[in-house]
Amino acid sequence: MRNRVFPIILACALLASCSKVAQNTASEPQTEDEKTLYALGVLMSGNLQSFSLTEAEVKQVQQGLADGALGKKQPADVESFVPKLQELQKTRETALAGKEKEAGKAYLTKAAAEKDATTTTSGIVMKTLKAGTGASPGAADTVKVHYEGRFVDGKVFDSSIKSGEPVEFPLSGVIPCWTEAVQTMKVGGKAQIVCPSDLAYGDEGRPPQMRGGATLVFDIELLEVSKGQSAPAGGKPAERP
């Protein structure tokens, strides 16, 4: 946890240089410099998402940024608050994961009740969108797919469909939900799968993009199967679904 807190402190330090600009540009950024600084703020804010800050708490963080940027006297050495930051982060992450799991449970129940939906023994809800006619992959095979992944609230977090570039990776290098579900598909087929959090990224998730405890929904088109091949050069299967 300590290693996760220090990037947050670093983010705050970097954002501090932008705090005065943010105060003076309440409207949409106009110049290239304003847009660049705004983009920096948005990117760095990802390190704070696990805290689930309220609007009032964001203002307190902004005050700390401003005081640090202006060199004002601090109430205490910021390092002394690292244990409290760790505790706060863990508490907020646990609470957020709990909410995600409750929302996911309700979504899974609803999805399982839909026409033509099936539920595996492990709890994955699947629906065939288009039947394939080709080969089915094995757990040790490499697949080429088009897919889109989203949270149960509809927010898309990854999409090869939008990028227009299919991806290729071994089924042994992805989340358990994919390893199991894609083996039931045939080349040329399309399916929608709903993955319980324990078969996806679990309670911890993968901050800042992947929420802890999140149930995930994927639309998948299986394009090709390569028997027993390893990941393509430069691929990062661990970062894929």
Could you give the topology of this structure?
Elements: H1 2-16, H2 19-24, H3 32-45, H4 55-69, H5 82-112, E1 118-119, E2 125-130, E3 142-151, E4 156-159, H6 160-163, E5 167-170, H7 176-182, E6 190-195, E7 216-226
Antiparallel strand pairs: 1-2, 2-6, 3-4, 3-5, 3-7, 6-7
Helix pairs in contact: 1-3, 1-4
Q: In percent, how helical is the residue content?
A: 25-40%
Shape: elongated
Rg from alpha-carbon coordinates: 22 Å
List segments where confidence is low: pLDDT < 50 over at least 5 consecutive residues. 9-25, 231-239
Strand content: 15-25%
Number of helices: 7
Order of helices and strands: HHHHHEEEEHEHEE
Number of strands: 7
Question: Major sheet: size, sense and barrel closure?
Answer: 7 strands, antiparallel
Gap between N and C termini, in Å? 24 Å
pLDDT average, as an integer?
82
The assigned structural class equals alpha+beta
- Oligomeric assembly: single chain
